[in-house]
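anyone seen this seq b4? input:
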Amino acid sequence: MNLALWIGAGLLAAVALIGGISKTFVPKEKLAVVHGGGWTEDVGAGFVKTLGVLELLAAVGLILPAAVDIAPVLAPVTAVCWVLLMVGAMVTHGRLGESKFVVLNLIYLALAAFVAWGRFGPESFTG
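predicted toks r here
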């Protein structure tokens, strides 16, 4: 179970890192033309960059606190925050009729919920 939770957190961290880098450093106009990036047309560049920074922080928060054993409770807290972010992503993509991205975000949400449940419960770092 511990290995599955580490793999789940690692996969989520990779997704967050890729998404965070693109939203933080790629201009909004370039993101808007990419498949699934149409949502950026309805928001400001600052909002897109803010989401990018939050995703970069999530990438760090899912792995680093537990790996270095400094405030490891931040790993499941970050997973809960990722669940909330995915709810927002699902609503946004749903409004645009992008059902493939809704399903993808649902998978990420389920994985984050698994990590949060596992790290707050049976495989807690504080136990």
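Residues 2-120 form one domain. The helical segments are 2-25, 28-32, 45-68, 74-95, 99-120. kinda curious what u guys think
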